[in-house]
Amino acid sequence: MTERVAIVTGGASGIGLAIAERLMQDNLTVVVFDRNECSVGAANYAVDVSDQSQVSDAVAQVATDVGAPTVLVNNAGVDGFSPFLKIDLDTWNRLMAVNLTGTFLCCQAVLPHMLEAGWGRIVNISSSSAQGGQQGMAHYVASKAGVIGLTKALALEFGPKGITVNTIPPGFIDTPMLREAESKGLLGPGVDAAIATTPVRRAGRPEDIAVTCAFLVSEEASYITGQVIGVNGGRNT
After folding, report:
1. 45 is an active site residue
2. pLDDT tens-digit series, residues 184-194
3. Active site residue: 140, 155, 178, 216, which one?
4. Which residues of the chain are modeled with pLDDT < 50?
5. Residue 123 φ then ψ, to 5°
6. In degrees rounded to 5, what are phi and psi of residue 27?
7. Cβ contact 10:65 at 8 Å
8. Which pLDDT does position 2 carry in this prediction?
């Protein structure tokens, strides 16, 4: 895996940062796309994944400056909390643009390099809320459910080309985004209450997602594609 170039979107913090750091440990050359400044990886690009020109230009620059990317982790995302009848169209469109369209755009930009190499790995970070639903988050749930559907379709289309596509729907993961939601009173009874109802009795760590992602992009995972690999401490089975 030493010469593989991996793009991790949303890699400046939380789950994305843990994934980037883990892939670097596994000797991949990691490039981070994020709107925020990032200090890890061989290169970092300020990219809004919902902007097609930014995505395509950045991927082309990676291919020129670092090497053709054959690993893609679509982690960039935004959350949303609102009663369904109060979700305005602009908010709905923004979540879809980042969480679902951003995944679509990054896949479209990177897949030609994977096809040329005859090898590729895509891991899309979705959400366990897309499996079980979550009240007050209909727009977020819908966008992440779309990521799961997109994953399955791409796996079928590109499997014969040596490219696997899988999705990890994280459960309750202790990240800055989670803590910010808790501080705003958006998590109901809060983190401790969620831990008490999680079978393994702890919150997930970004590293839990990272180690699963590292396996899915490895050579050893070549027979796994189109799968929803839940990492949730048993909250969804």
Report:
1. no
2. 877 777 788 88
3. 140
4. none
5. -125, 120
6. 70, 20
7. no
8. 55
Rounded to an integer, what distance in angstroms lies between the CA atom of residue 214 and that of residue 221?
A: 10
Three-state secondary-structure class, residue 203: coil
Integer Cα distance of 126 and 143 in angstroms: 9
Tokens coding 36: 């925020």
Q: For all residues of the chain together, what is the average pLDDT?
A: 94
Q: Tokens in use for 21? A: 């750091």
Q: What is the pTM of this model?
A: 0.94
Domain spans of the chain, in order of start: 5-221
**Phi and psi dihedrals of 31, rounded to 5?**
-120, 135
Strand partners, 7: 31, 72
CB contact set of 132 (below 8 Å; sequence gap of 6+): 236
Domain 5-221 sits in which CATH superfamily?
A: NAD(P)-binding Rossmann-like Domain (3.40.50.720)
In this prediction, residue 1 carries a pLDDT of 54
- Parallel, antiparallel or unpaired: strands 120-125 and 69-74: parallel
1 Cβ neighbours under 8 A, 6+ residues apart? 26, 27, 28, 217, 218, 219
Instruction: Find where tokens 């994934």 sit.
Output: 19
